[in-house]
Design brief:
Largest sheet: 12 strands, antiparallel
Oligomer: single chain
Radius of gyration: 24 Å
Distance between the termini: 31 Å
Structural class: alpha+beta
Helix content: 25-40%
């Protein structure tokens, strides 16, 4: 299972780059004539639609992070000329240092991601060369810092995250820095990456805004979600100065997939049972067909290797042998404890425990997509920002899935939030 950890991938040469730069310069000139009210905006509390990655494609779903933010949309020089607090001053310093190739000034505020304070120290992503000169070179080779626009400032617990954009050889592109504590509790700036799952989710939403070129990923208010989970960004029980909430819908349950005597109450649960039955009965091709095409391409070689194992052992029960090697059938036939409804995407949480005796560690989950009533498993053997968050027990306490949903009223219509549940 692989994922990209490179935050500044090398970009291909494009003949459109000069036109992009001219358009960016014109936009900056227009923005520079706007009044300073943008920089004096109050902090807004909004719900940010978070895209779910399905087979490396962003899917818009009713899944939100409720955050505090300021929207700017101004050229960097205009932002830098306004009064600044400490976090904003650090952000200005880093951009100016990159512009001037000033490694000393850069080093005065910069810390590499692997040296920043994190709740979960088990996963670390680092560059081979962590020197200031290396970081500046990578940044300048991918972004035009002379034409940088400041998009927004997001307050995440006790950290401040700055989303910015510049023209690149592949078009306008967004990136994010954040100011937080390093391992010595000093205020430092670093890049948003997979070491910071919540920040990465927020950045993915701003990326989606740029890519979608529409309003579906714009922040909204008055979201009527049945679950609102306060993320302990500062450690257990500590959400920090500016709490961030995961807002989602879903249903707790105790449905035994493997017990055919219990009728499946929904088409989704019926699909889960059918897929598990295909595997139990050794219908390998039928089982693989329950996955999206990209996932089929990844799961078929895996199934073939298990089939070869079965041939060597000459088992009289093919399906039993296949799944004894992987433990897949046991998981698929376990009890569904919670279905997170982000239609058309569903996250199905399962455990072998019965009733409410399950523990967070015993839960596994899978992605299921609904394409006009046709259910498929997705994202086999792949991970993304949402998985980094859901699998980080310091950030996401799965005990929330034991609680009953709360019915919340909304004072206004929430765009694109599906009201009909499967």
């Amino acid at each position: 299972m692989q994922r990209s950890t490179e935050r500044f991938p090398m970009l291909s040469v494009s003949c459109k780059f000069q036109n992009i730069r001219r358009r960016a310069a014109l936009a900056a000139l227009v923005l520079a004539t706007l009044p300073d009210r943008a920089l004096a905006q109050k902090i807004d509390s909004v719900s940010l639609p978070i895209p779910i990655m399905i087979e490396a494609r962003q899917v818009h779903c009713p899944l939100y992070l409720k955050i505090d933010m300021k929207r700017y949309g101004v050229p960097f020089d205009k932002f830098a000329s306004a009064p600044r607090d400490k976090a904003q001053a650090i952000f200005v310093t880093i951009v100016q240092a990159i512009r001037k190739l000033d490694t000393m000034k850069f080093s005065s505020v910069w810390t590499s991601p692997d040296q920043m304070k994190r709740l979960d120290p088990t996963t670390t992503v680092a560059m081979v060369d962590n020197s200031a000169g290396s970081w500046i070179e990578v940044a300048r080779s991918n972004f035009d810092f002379d034409h940088l626009n400041v998009v927004a400032e997001i307050f995440v617990g006790s950290d401040a995250m700055f989303v910015w954009e510049t023209p690149t050889k592949a078009g306008m592109r967004r990136e994010a820095f954040y100011v937080g504590s390093d391992r010595k509790n000093n205020d430092r700036l670093s890049i948003v990456d997979s070491n910071t799952p919540v920040l990465s989710l927020i950045k993915s939403a701003f990326d989606a805004q740029e890519m979608a070129n529409g309003s579906i990923y714009e922040p909204v208010t008055n979201v009527a979600s049945s679950y609102q989970y306060k993320i302990p960004l500062g450690g257990k029980g500590n959400p920090g100065t500016h709490p961030v909430y995961l807002e989602f819908g879903g249903t707790p349950m105790d449905f035994p997939v493997g017990d055919v005597k219990v009728k499946a109450p929904t088409p989704l649960l019926g699909f889960l049972r059918k897929a598990a039955r295909d595997l139990r009965d050794g219908r390998i091709d039928s089982f693989a067909a329950n996955y999206t095409v990209p996932s089929q391409e990844r799961i078929k070689p895996w199934l073939a290797s298990l089939a070869r194992h079965n041939t060597i052992t000459r088992s009289q029960q093919p399906a039993a042998s296949l799944n004894a090697a992987a433990g897949v059938l046991q998981v698929m036939e376990s009890n569904v404890k919670f279905v997170l409804d982000a239609s058309p995407v569903f996250l199905v949480f399962q455990s072998q425990a019965t009733g409410s005796s399950w523990t967070p560690e015993s839960l596994s989950y899978s992605y299921v997509v609904n394409d006009r009533g046709n259910y498929k498993f997705a994202n086999f053997s792949s991970m993304d920002d949402l998985d980094d968050f859901l699998q980080n027990s310091a950030l996401f306490d799965r005990n929330i899935l034991k609680s009953s949903p709360v019915t919340q009223s909304s004072s206004g219509t929430v765009p694109h939030l599906r009201q009909q549940r499967q």
